[in-house]
Design a protein that fits this description.
Distance between the termini: 30 Å
Order of helices and strands: EEHEHEEEHEHEEEEHEE
Strand content: 25-35%
Number of strands: 13
Shape: globular
Helix content: 10-25%
Largest sheet: 7 strands, mixed
Oligomer: single chain
């Protein structure tokens, strides 16, 4: 795609899974955030702590590594630190369509490099067995009631490909980008929709390359083969997978002019 002079550069990192995910993200940002003039870094952090949830210490670690906003998903409530009022989680958002009683908010508005940038987080309902309201209605409410933004990125944490595509088509032209998370496998369908919204079914994950979606292989295979529950854990050593997408957004039109998928294996 053509180069965009002086674009707003937004890096979105896929699900960060366990210590290897934290390591590979920190390594990449140390080498590239300033060098590549990245204005804003957003990452899905719902698997950061041992593959399930986000502790406060790991939240602080992600911010220190260079991440600006952290999104979540179906594992948001797994780590109980989120219920501690003394802990600051102001740079994390949770699925917008969770019950309002849940801690934190589902959308955040920031001033970044002279632009108003909104990040919203949604959770899908197909194949995800949680009680939540419609992601469509939740995002409609934000667009109708909240302060308007120049750039609006939506992390749609969902299982079903069709649900992700339907939501992106429904909001085509109303948001800057709809990027899917949750499946931990980067898809090859990045595109600009008819009204200019960027769409990607799933950005992938950051974590152990030699694993089953970031989890240790042996226990995942046993659980899948037998149907019996086993403890879920994540590898601590080995090769690391980096998955992200870098969006270049025109400062005048506020639309994505170019994008680059990142899919790297690191030792």
């Amino acid at each position: 795609m053509p180069s965009n002079p002086n674009p707003f550069r937004l890096l979105f990192l896929g699900d960060i899974v366990g210590p290897l995910g934290r390591e590979v993200v920190a390594e990449y940002l140390k080498a590239h955030k300033a060098k590549d003039k990245i204005d804003l870094v957003v990452a899905n952090g719902e698997n950061t702590t041992h593959g399930h949830g986000l502790s406060h210490s790991h939240y602080e670690e992600l911010l220190k590594s260079g991440i600006d906003v952290i999104t979540s998903g179906n594992h948001f409530l797994n780590c109980k630190d989120i219920f501690q009022p003394s802990y600051d989680f102001s740079k994390e958002i949770r699925p917008l369509n969770f019950d309002p009683i849940c801690p934190l908010k589902g959308t955040i508005l920031l001033e970044v490099s002279g632009l108003r940038v909104r990040i919203s987080n949604l959770l899908g309902r197909v194949f995800i067995n949680l009680c939540q309201s419609s992601p469509f209605l939740a995002l409609e409410e934000v667009l109708g009631k909240e302060e308007k933004a120049d750039i609006h990125l939506v992390d749609f944490h969902a299982e079903a490909t069709a649900e992700k595509r339907c939501l992106s088509e429904y909001f085509d032209g109303q948001v800057t980008a709809v990027i899917g998370t949750h499946t931990h496998v980067q898809t090859n369908d990045a595109k600009l929709l008819e009204q200019g919204t960027f769409f990607l079914t799933d950005v992938g994950m950051n974590g152990a390359y030699d694993s089953v979606l970031g989890d240790i292989k042996a226990s995942s295979i046993y659980r899948t083969r037998t149907g019996m529950p086993t403890p879920m854990d994540v590898p601590r050593t080995g090769k690391k997978l980096l998955n992200a997408v870098l969006l270049e957004i025109d400062r005048e039109t506020k639309k994505v002019n170019s994008f680059t998928l990142l899919n790297e294996i690191r030792s």
